[in-house]
What we know:
Elements: H1 11-22, H2 26-63, H3 71-86, H4 97-143, H5 147-158, H6 176-201, H7 205-209
Helix pairs in contact: 2-4, 2-6, 3-4, 4-6, 5-6
Amino acid sequence: MLDDGQKRSEDQLFSGDRDTMQSREDTDVEEPQADYLEKARELAGSYSQLVKKREWLRQQYEESKSWFYTRDEIIYKLSQGAHEESERVQTSGTSNPVERTVLNCDKVLASMNREVQSQRTEQFLEPYYKVCEEIELFEVGLRSLRGQTRYVAEQLFVDGKNQSEVVGMDGQSLGRRMVEREKDAALQGIAVRMGLYEGRRKKGWQMKYQMK
């Protein structure tokens, strides 16, 4: 289940959205709810896999730091051709190919490492941000639930329990119909909160999950 430490105060975040939603026509409110209900179902079914994928991408991004070139590696690579050229050139000073290689090393190093960072971003960082976005969107909806509805939802969606394993807040097993009723109520509640939250979230999520 979600740790209580993950809870955040959302009153200020959603106060503007509540005022806006109350002033809209009923048809305007129902459309995003219908859209987000399908999204809520999708995320509920894939939540545990998304959490695992987030951790895998984070690890891969950290490990890919070894892809960056060092100055010594660049000097070695460039000097291979420079030594061959120097054998054909009779000169002195900085026009010597080997010495030019050393002087140009920093420019080459910066260029090659920019390419490395571009690869890391495409392969790991951008997918990581996307997964974090999906997880946060679902968790905001989940945290908005209350009482037994949330308790059941966390067992189903976070803990991955089967319906037959779900218990109530009193620790007693719940019947299949009760579990299904609480599940439907949870998905409806999650969908509504997701619709309210998504517009505000996009501005800040990348900074929050930025990896150094």
